Amino acid sequence: MSENNDQKFVYDFTEGNRDLKDLLGGKGANLAEMTNLGLPVPPGFTITTEACKVYLESGSEPAALRDEVSAHLDALEQKMGKKLGQADDPLLVSVRSGAKFSMPGMMDTVLNIGLSDESVVGLAKQADNERFAWDSYRRLIQMFGKTVLGVDGELFEDALDEAKAAKKAASDTDLDAADLKKLVKQFKKIVKTATGRDFPQDPREQMDLAIKAVFDSWNGDRAKLYRRQERIPHDLGTAVNVCSMVFGNLGPDSGTGVAFTRDPASGHQGVYGDYLQNAQGEDVVAGIRNTVPLAELESIDKKSYDQLMSIMETLETHYKDLCDIEFTIERGQLWMLQTRVGKRTAGAAFRIATQLVDQGLIDEAEALQRVTGAQLAQLMFPKFDEDAKVEQIGRGIAASPGAAVGKAVFDSYTAVKWSRSGEKVILIRRETNPDDLDGMIAAEGILTSRGGKTSHAAVVARGMGKTCVCGAEELEVDTKRRRMTTASGVVVEEGDVVSIDGSTGKVYLGEVPVVPSPVVEYFEGRMHAGADDADELVQAVHRIMAYADRVRRLRVRANADNAEDALRARRFGAQGIGLCRTEHMFLGERREMVERLILADTEDEREAALAELLPLQKQDFIELFEAMDGLPVTVRLLDPPLHEFLPDITELSVRVALAEARKDPNENDLRLLQAVHRLHEQNPMLGLRGVRLGLVIPGLFTMQVRAIAEAAAQRIDAKGDPRAEIMIPLVGTVQELEIVREEAEQVIAEVQARTGVELKLALGTMIELPRAAVTAGQIAEAAEFFSFGTNDLTQTVWGFSRDDVEASFFTAYLEKGIFGVSPFETIDKDGVGSLVRSAVEAGRATRPDIKLGVCGEHGGDPESVHFFHEVGLDYVSCSPFRIPVARLEAGRAAAGSKGSDSR
């Protein structure tokens, strides 16, 4: 982006507000908001995301930035009454990242900037605490060396461990000033050896280099991976917050902590968070020292505790949501370092949304926007069977719920490697750090022996919806020997199966069986939300789903091929069947009948095969229409890739060859092999299937139409209300549809005349080929409805074979950022989506009352549902299990569009 001479790149905390997240990032905007609320925020300023964008695109900072930073630094120094890094009483600052969307631990932070060989002595005198000053200096060199100068962080960790071992110290807090002076000297040697330069002593150089490092960290590997995982745009850039330091490591009357206004795991109100005496903020989130519960702060420092509780109430009321807060206490003085709308588990999201409605802070429409279909899907996962015989080997903090089972692995590389081989794994670490992100993504769940609900592992796992247990202290994790030892002496080696329960914090040896979630039981009608014993979570889900159903415009149907699936779909809230795949009715024993039909040489053979299939098909449809009585049922006529109903050509060739070698040829096998060779296709997905098969094999589609019509007539005679819709697949031109439609209408008329029952059967088609989408206006002349088959449409638009590409190169495409997400998972709005949009417009222009839906699995994808609402489809159809998700997202799409209209 080009630099504007009038552009302002730096804002004081007093100048911004929470609505400027695009410009100031989430952290900077919220620091400004807290400052405006009169809360105790250390003074500072924010460098905007626009400055970062200029830097990333041009390779250099905006020309005006240095002068703006200097002016704001001067103002900060005047406010604080001291200069950055001055010898006698130095001003120290932190330099922190702060993107629009929270990316916990993914970008760089440097504390204690301004310390040097000279100013550390002045800090010690000013604070009357030599240990504190040298501890702060060693932290600066360690963080600066790793994040700014690119020194291997393990070198600093090893040196710290050696210093503790030499002193026989259990924690770094047991090292005294003399120990820390030696450590600083060693750290400086590490920097010199690794970089070829001395640790910089000029405080302004430290600050400028740290600012650049934060800009650069936006494009760091872990940040890019996290953005892909969370679908955060790559072009936003990060702001940089320069904040005057306050110190939690000044002794027992100081400390640092993280707090939540409600429990981010359950949503319950109370005192939730972690506190660590005599520590700086990174110690808490890194999980390297086990914290105490926030409630204990009341007995440690009652004044600060009471002030914090008051501020938390102020922030939750102001933001009208769960707030995540970072704070420091410096010698009894409370300082607020950050607030943001906190990440939460799926269950907490639903509970909190309804609680806030009951408190009058938000309305139902806003509550609906506070939850997502992805969260609802998480709540539908199974949980561990409480009655199962289990071997519990430990217990930690329930950081992110779920029931996860997998093989124990002790590093991210192994987690990724084994996961790609199809293994389910549990990543076990002492504590995680941002470099573990790829392993956390690959794992079924995460288990750590250190850290609490606010540690890196907990925060990231909750954001991703991963099961996580933290702070299982009785478990000794040895990553070098790749094993974990329990308090009772049980050794878990890498590859052993473990189970972790993120709802209770319990850890088990071996595989624990699972049972359905109460949310699924609710959707299936086995648990009533109004019952006295109904789970609080179920009641919250019920309330939000009821509102979503009231406001949504999109109807939700199911993809179901039999009565059992149809009944389940109906219990889940399906408003019909959007796709019945009739080829699924011919698997198993019936496969040979279709094979005989396809391979028939004579008309008599073909008629015999069709006559055998007709009553079976009719009974299938009777059962389906009965299960979905009063609701539409869209039946897709036979659409198999031909090879699915032919003998395997290799097996048949071998059988024929062996028979010939025995000089005992089988005439039937020989004839069959000739027919299979004749019909063999190099690419069956683009071959003789769908409408093409119906046109080439006389009587095939008319048999199916007859079965549908007779089944409908029989159900009407039985006082039922069948609402069948007949869908012709893989149409590429209106002429194909016209021919099949004419034959179908003749059959329907025959059945009406013979039974005396009036039939109203809609005839339509799937739009699953680019040509069909482009000529949708013509095709609509012969179609009463369109259903977009987005699975095949994605394949044909992209030229991808889904069965092959997802395993062969999609991983590389996702890692390189070519895809943010697989186009088979979420609809490609620019390519496939533009064809859907134009086909909708053309279809409605020709036939204003045409019914429009989608039956590819995109119909159950949350993001895709919003697109289908936007382009004006009438319904989405998906697998039964995804129906509640689609209902919720259809409601969110409707409520969101109303909100945007009103704005």
Automatic annotation (TrEMBL):
Catalytic reaction list: pyruvate + phosphate + ATP = phosphoenolpyruvate + AMP + diphosphate + H(+)
SUPFAM superfamilies for the chain: Glutathione synthetase ATP-binding domain-like (SSF56059), Phosphoenolpyruvate/pyruvate domain (SSF51621), Phosphohistidine domain (SSF52009)
EC number annotated for this UniProt entry: 2.7.9.1
Record domain Pyruvate phosphate dikinase AMP/ATP-binding: where: 65-290, 296-347
UniProt key word Nucleus: no
Cofactor(s) the record lists: Mg(2+)
Pfam families per record: PEP-utilizers (PF00391), PEP-utilizers_C (PF02896), PPDK_N (PF01326)
Span of domain PEP-utilising enzyme mobile: 423-505
Highest rank taxon of the organism: Bacteria
Stored InterPro entries: ATP_grasp_subdomain_1 (IPR013815), PEP-util_enz_mobile_dom (IPR008279), PEP_util_AS (IPR018274), PEP_util_C (IPR000121), Phosphohistidine_dom_sf (IPR036637), PPDK_AMP/ATP-bd (IPR002192), Pyruvate_phosphate_dikinase (IPR010121), Pyrv/PenolPyrv_kinase-like_dom (IPR015813)
Keyword Kinase: yes
Residue ranges occupied by any PEP-utilising enzyme C-terminal domain in the UniProt entry: 539-890
Record keywords: ATP-binding, Kinase, Magnesium, Metal-binding, Nucleotide-binding, Pyruvate, Transferase
NCBIfam families in UniProt: PRK05878.1, pyru_phos_dikin
Family from the record: Belongs to the PEP-utilizing enzyme family.
Name of this protein: Pyruvate, phosphate dikinase
Phylogenetic lineage: Bacteria, Bacillati, Actinomycetota, Actinomycetes, Kitasatosporales
